[in-house]
Amino acid sequence: SSSPLDKFRELMGSLYGVAGVAHLADCLVDSQLLVTAGSQPFGLLPPLGKAYALLWCATGPVSFGTSRIGGKVADLGLILYGLVEVVGAYLIRFQTDVPAVTESSSTTMMDPFLNAILVQGVVAAAWLYSSKRKEE
To answer: Which of 88, 17, 80, 96 is nearest to 51 (CA)?
Structure first.
């Protein structure tokens, strides 16, 4: 039986793995996630922007793989994914003139950097909660 923390690591690794593959497919099709966050579509990004987007996509499967190893290695995979996502959102937010909140047609776009910080904060809080739980 796995500990609650091991179960959390496996769940998040699986979610990040799927996210990475989905992000890659999105980048190669219409870049809706990047555009929604305020970036240019993948095809219009400069070479370093494309490389960073591909790194972001690759960290999902890396996180999945490390989650299957478990322990501190799994934690490093989750941390890597979170850092790459937060830095990428920072680059979009502070390097592309995206206002903190913009109104486009009838939708409101949240600040991508703040959103990434909040999401990773929730993941960190869930990790802490799982690390304190006893096996069932």
So the answer is: 88
Segment 48-58 shows an average pLDDT of 96
Tokens of 30: 């219409």
Quick one: which of 38, 44, 45 has its CA closest to 89? 38
Alpha helices in 30-111 (DSSP H): 32-37, 47-69, 71-95
- Give 103's strand partners: 108
What's this model's pTM, rounded to 2 decimal places?
0.86
> Which amino acid is it at 116?
A
Q: What confidence score (pLDDT) does residue 95 get?
A: 73
- Total residue length of the chain: 136
How far is the C-alpha of 128 from the C-alpha of 23, rounded, in Å? Answer: 27
CA distance 63 to 127: 15
Residue range 71-91, pLDDT digits in tens: 999 999 999 999 999 999 999
Short-list 32, 51, 123, CA closest to 83: 123
Query: How many whole angstroms separate alpha carbon 58 and alpha carbon 15?
Result: 13
